[in-house]
Amino acid sequence: MFEAEIKISLKKTVADPQGLTIKHALESLDFKGLNEVRMGKLVRIRLEAQDQAQAQDEVKQMCEKLLANQIIEDFSFKVEQL
Amino acid sequence: MFEAEIKISLKKTVADPQGLTIKHALESLDFKGLNEVRMGKLVRIRLEAQDQAQAQDEVKQMCEKLLANQIIEDFSFKVEQL
């Protein structure tokens, strides 16, 4: 069994209104010195695979085919054997 | 300047319909051997702080006061100096 932790975030050039809203909310709670807030997604997947390489490959394909919209999002992941 | 990467995920005992939907979608794309898919949030915050300890403390408070709903969510974060 393997566990993948996938981080999906908006590309730097893409506006992030959700992040901006959270930044304003934090500022209204009196947090100071905030420079930027960016929201992303975190997906944890447990899967069966023959080995680490196969698990890595499957997860990469999942990101490319479904999880990330590569026009506006970047993804990175790590896979661990459980 | 510090950058915090905050991971917010549903507690293990909380049902995750969004994760389940993604699991079904992946299966319909012919990915096999999926055991569990859980969705979470990833927040990246850039902030000014006097030192690492102050940055850590601020980010912890942000999580507790706004970012995470601790009844159903767990959070973890790491802070790096830029």
UniProtKB/TrEMBL annotation, chains A, B:
- A single BP term in Gene Ontology: 'de novo' IMP biosynthetic process
Q: What name does this protein carry?
A: Phosphoribosylformylglycinamidine synthase subunit PurS
NCBIfam families in the record, alphabetically?
phosphoribosylformylglycinamidine synthase subunit PurS, PRK05974.1
Task: Just give the chief location class.
Answer: cytoplasm
- GO cellular component terms, A-Z: cytoplasm
Summarizing the function annotation, the protein's role is: Part of the phosphoribosylformylglycinamidine synthase complex involved in the purines biosynthetic pathway. Catalyzes the ATP-dependent conversion of formylglycinamide ribonucleotide (FGAR) and glutamine to yield formylglycinamidine ribonucleotide (FGAM) and glutamate. The FGAM synthase complex is composed of three subunits. PurQ produces an ammonia molecule by converting glutamine to glutamate. PurL transfers the ammonia molecule to FGAR to form FGAM in an ATP-dependent manner.
Question: One MF term in GO for this entry?
Answer: ATP binding
Q: What class of enzyme is it?
A: ligase
- Pfam families the record matches: PurS
Q: Where in the cell is it found?
A: Cytoplasm
Per UniProt, the keywords (alphabetical) are: ATP-binding, Cytoplasm, Ligase, Nucleotide-binding, Purine biosynthesis
Named in its record, the pathway it takes part in is: Purine metabolism; IMP biosynthesis via de novo pathway; 5-amino-1-(5-phospho-D-ribosyl)imidazole from N(2)-formyl-N(1)-(5-phospho-D-ribosyl)glycinamide: step 1/2
